[in-house]
Design goal:
Number of domains: 4
CATH superfamily of the largest domain: Class I glutamine amidotransferase (GATase) domain
InterPro entries: Class_I_gatase-like, Glyco_hydro/deAcase_b/a-brl, NODB_dom
Keywords: Membrane, Transmembrane, Transmembrane helix
Organism: Undibacterium hunanense
Strand order of the largest sheet: 2-1-3-4-11-10-9-6-7
CATH topology of the largest domain: Rossmann fold
Distance between the termini: 82 Å
CATH architecture of the largest domain: 3-Layer(aba) Sandwich
Number of helices: 16
Shape: globular
Structural class: alpha/beta
Strand content: 15-25%
Pfam families: Polysacc_deac_1
Protein name: Polysaccharide deacetylase family protein
Helix content: 25-40%
Length: 644
């Protein structure tokens, strides 16, 4: 039996006995120390940074202000519980999503079940989850709570019935900033809602109803952590979707294509209000909690932002667009048959000093070399394939051959095609192979179909081995094109109104609007050609908020925007933020959007280092400002936002 250690282990120093475990032990000791330090500082009032996959627009450069548990109340209305029981319903079904949200977000609500307790809270955020039946005294207490500065989030038909379950009207919600316009039913627009339509608290929306998507506006106080135009499917719950209007909206209920009936163009499904600096804030959701079940996590992000705003926590995000603009617009032509009509189209958009985009079917372009040269000299030009046949389903070899063929076609006409890096598939027919082949061929943007993204913003397609600055940008077509409008059999006047309505919806959302037209449909005196001047006049009149850009400009900007990395810390009602500009050239006209903690309270932005570039404050509305930087050289910058 061996009694001695042949390796001399017993005689080694302690640190040598630990061996390779030493590094792990050191890391563990450091981690415990850091954790103890951060925990102590958090107790002293530090705000810990929030990490989430729900960063703005799916990019790591955005920052948000997450809600805290402090002062959050969930009112479990006994009158509402009794009312649902009387009609065979279960109120807990509408309370469960809130409890699940709190558990998932690690946020605790204090649940209030006694109406008398409403008089004992003076501040914080009080949630009314589909609290349909409220007594007169409850309404008085809730109004007093808000008047003295408390915030309220009400969902669905809260307060539309009294304690006996009898119809009481919409006055309570109107006091929170939501004016009733009825319900969304089969074949919207709907007739006005009545006591009878909500008699059982379940005014059913037929499953075939088109308007079942919550479409978010971008960069609003209640939606800043998600992309402009984001679709959220609301499912087929039995509780009706309500129609509201108000002074400030953050989302609307639309169909998948994001088309809203003219009668409902000023409506919203998520509303917010702050009557004065002394009163509390309010928010109203036009849908019941049962609608959360279809896509809970996007709704959770909406609730995050809403509670944060109601708690008056400022938030800061990278703006989608440069120069403090709120939305962007591209007009492009698929230049195919009727190729010479492109010159008529070009002259029209040139009348408002706009340089649009032309995607050329190259086998046709070869037949019109002079027109092709004219367009390439003065406008943004890209490829629309070699022939009018989709790429989808074709082999990689076939697709590569076609890409090479179309490039050769334009190379035979134009002296230099190096700047032509945009593509639009014929018939919007492409697949993953197409995206792969385009990236390998060095294309930098692809104008795609409306289903390519869930939002209405550009998105990157990145492949392994492709650097960030060479990643391809998807530009989803976001508006009805001339083919869509033609199917609706609209005359020139209604076509004009449709074009303007789609552009206005895009502007209100802060989204990327893309209108696609086909050269064969732009004959002289065609319906589209007659409608176009009024549409262009609308864009010109709104140029202070809409960035009119070519497809290549938008794709280039999305790459430029990606060079700005933003992090921020909320300290009470102050924000300190750091920006890092990567790359080797200045970033021009970058913007941030700041959600204000108090209505109309403009901030001061102070550099924390000597020589830090100044920023311009551009008011968007009572609740938001844009912080615009003319030029930022590569490097790191630190600022503080102070509210006077």
């Amino acid at each position: 039996m061996q009694t001695e250690d042949p390796s001399g282990f017993e005689n080694r120093p302690a640190y040598r006995r630990i061996g390779t475990y030493l590094i792990g032990l050191i890391v563990l000791v450091m981690a415990v120390s850091v954790f103890a330090y951060l925990s102590s500082m958090q107790v002293l009032g530090w705000q810990m940074p929030q990490f989430s996959l729900n960063t703005p627009f799916g990019s790591p450069g955005g920052t948000t202000s997450a809600p805290t548990s402090k002062g959050l109340y969930l009112y479990v209305s006994p009158n509402t519980r009794s009312y649902f029981s009387s009609i065979g319903g279960n109120y807990d079904r509408l309370l469960a999503p809130w409890r699940a949200y709190g558990k998932q977000r690690q946020i605790s609500f204090k649940e209030i079940t006694d109406p008398q307790e409403l008089r004992n809270i003076s501040e914080g955020v009080l949630i009314l989850p589909s609290a349909v039946a409220l007594s007169e005294q409850e309404r008085i207490d809730l109004q007093a709570y808000r008047t003295q500065g408390g915030a309220i989030l009400a969902t669905w038909a809260s307060g539309t019935r009294n304690e006996k379950g009898e119809w009481a009207g919409w006055q309570f919600l109107e006091g929170l900033g939501a004016v009733s316009k009825g319900e969304i039913v089969q074949g919207a627009p709907a007739a006005a809602a009545s006591a009878a339509s909500l008699a059982s608290a379940t005014s059913p929306v037929p499953p075939t109803s088109l308007a079942r998507y919550l479409i978010l506006d971008g960069e609003t106080p209640l939606t800043h952590s998600q992309a402009a135009g984001q679709r959220i499917w609301l499912g087929n719950a039995s509780e009706s979707l309500l129609r509201f209007s108000g002074k400030a909206g953050a989302a609307r209920i639309m169909d998948w294509g994001r088309v809203q009936d003219a009668e409902r163009k000023n409506e919203a499904a998520v509303l917010y209000a702050e009557p004065s600096a002394e009163s509390g804030r309010s928010a109203v959701f036009a849908f019941a909690e049962s609608a959360w079940e279809a896509q809970p996590y996007p709704i959770y992000s909406l609730v995050d932002d809403t509670l944060s705003w109601l708690q008056r926590r400022p938030a800061l995000v990278r703006a989608a667009w440069p120069e403090g603009k709120y939305a962007a617009q591209i007009i492009e032509m698929d230049t195919e048959q009727g190729f010479p009509n492109a010159l008529r189209f070009a002259a029209m958009i040139r009348s408002i000093s706009y340089r649009g985009s032309f995607y050329m079917l190259t086998s046709v372009a070869r037949q019109f070399p002079d027109e092709t040269k004219t367009l390439a000299r003065d406008y943004d030009v890209g490829y629309h394939g070699d022939v009018h046949e989709g790429f989808k389903g074709q082999s990689a070899g076939q697709q590569e051959k076609r890409l090479n063929s179309m490039r050769a076609d334009l190379k035979s006409i134009l002296a230099d095609t190096s700047a032509l890096t945009g593509f639009r598939a014929p018939l919007e027919a492409y697949d993953e192979t197409t995206q792969l082949m385009l990236q390998k061929a060095g294309f930098l943007h692809h104008l795609t179909d409306p289903g390519s993204t869930e939002g209405r913003l550009p998105a990157f397609v990145k492949l392994d081995g492709v650097s960030n600055d060479k990643a391809m940008v998807l530009l989803p077509r976001t508006q009805r094109d001339d083919l869509n409008l033609s199917k609706e059999q609209l005359d020139a006047e209604r076509t004009k109104l449709a074009l303007i309505a789609d552009a206005e919806t895009s502007r209100q959302m802060g989204a990327l609007g893309i209108l696609s037209v086909h050269s064969q449909n732009f004959e002289e005196n065609s319906t589209l050609a007659q409608a176009f001047p009024a549409y262009l006049a609308y864009l010109k009149a709104n140029r202070n908020t809409i960035w009119l850009a070519s497809a290549t400009q938008v794709a280039n900007w999305w790459h430029e925007r990606d060079r700005l990395k933003l992090s921020s810390t909320v300290k009470g009602r102050r924000i300190e933020f750091d920006m890092t500009i990567t790359g080797d050239k200045p970033l021009e006209n970058a913007s941030l959007i700041l959600m204000l903690p108090q209505k109309g309270q403009l901030p001061s932005v102070l550099g924390l280092k000597i020589g830090t570039p100044g920023a311009n404050i551009k008011r968007i509305d009572d609740y938001r400002v844009a912080i615009v930087f003319e030029a930022l050289k590569p490097g790191n910058y630190a600022y503080q936002v102070v509210f006077n």
